[in-house]
């Protein structure tokens, strides 16, 4: 299911879902004058994963399977990992836009959108959704790592968040600057341990290509369709984080949108 062929076969599904999300965004804007993006994106990504995995539409409101998936998400997000692993907080302000053209963006446009890809990399660097890689890593014999001695049987937990904010690795690590990835090619697929938001090695995320294809395509469509603006009464966007199932915004993002007159990003 994670082969490039299957992933491109899901383009229609990704398009249907993003079309619905775009409608949802506009409806909220018209009805409430403000868009709370988290719920719209969560519903869309849950549906995307469930339909990609089960190959059919699972009604998340009624069916037993749908209810189980939904409950699983809700239960696990109640567990606040930050109570156990303090991560601190961060702030940044930045934005980026693609190049506007007339037709609707497609999967095949993504390789020609390097700045969009750089934005996604920079977001994954500053806010890795899985900041602590899985703890399925055990030292099977005594080993020295730099100046540290790691005895056999030690469970290792990789703090990717700390690596992606490390000043000796990243210039101005707290600054949102997608251009850094235009200046230097850095793979995010697990071969470069400075930035491995999908992990690395045997336990690397199997959904990384599907995840990236979805994020690139949806971001392109959301940027193409609307200009995104802060809510006038919120002068500063609070980017504090909290760790639940994944790293989330402590205060979910609310914004205003204006429809663009022209069409697609290319
Ligand atoms: C932007 C999207 C995603 C991000 C940032 C992400 C991130 C991660 C990370 C950091 C890990 C731990 C890797 C390690 O410890 O080395 C992981 C594991 C995993 N991910 Fe993802 N993931 C994403 C999307 C997906 C999708 C779409 C699926 C499936 C449909 C998926 C399924 C899994 C599974 C099953 C594992 C456990 C692998 C194992 O332990 O062997 N992920 N992911």
TrEMBL record:
Residues where heme binds: 205
Requisite cofactors: heme
Molecular function GO labels: heme binding; iron ion binding; monooxygenase activity; oxidoreductase activity, acting on paired donors, with incorporation or reduction of molecular oxygen
Keywords, in A-Z order: Heme, Iron, Metal-binding, Monooxygenase, Oxidoreductase
Gene3D superfamilies: Cytochrome P450 (1.10.630.10)
Keyword field contains GTP-binding: no
SUPFAM superfamilies xref list: Cytochrome P450
Domain of life: Eukaryota
Short name of any one Pfam family annotated for the protein: p450
UniProt xrefs under PANTHER family: CYTOCHROME P450 78A7-RELATED, CYTOCHROME P450 FAMILY PROTEIN, EXPRESSED
Entry similarity comment: Belongs to the cytochrome P450 family.
Protein name: Cytochrome P450
Organism of origin: Tetracentron sinense
